[in-house]
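Sequence only, no structure available. Ideas?
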Amino acid sequence: MIRKRVTSVLVVAAIGAVGLVNGASASGPRHPLTSVIQTSKSCSSGYTRAVLPDGVKCLHDGEFCTKTYQSYYHRYGYTCALGSDGRLRLSVW
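Reply:
I predicted one. C-alpha cells follow.
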C-alpha cells in the first residue's frame, strides 16, 4: 500500500514538473512548430512576407483581404479597401 502511494505521489509530482516547464515557456509560441513555420516560409518576387494572426502570408497588390487584419496590413505597407469589382482587395498604402 505504501509503495503504491509513493508511486502515485511521484507520478503526480512528475506531471506537475512538466506542467511548470511548459508553463514557463508560455511567453513563447503557442505551438512548437509555429516559429519554424514563420521563419521558413519565403515569398516570390513582388510579394511581401507578412505574419498575420492566422499564419504567415505572402501579400501582393490586388489580392483578397479582410478588414479584420487592417492594422497588420498597414505594418507591411498595404490597406484593405473595395476594389473596382466591389470586393475587398489589398492595395499599396
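The longest strand covers residues 48-52.
Hope that gets you unstuck.
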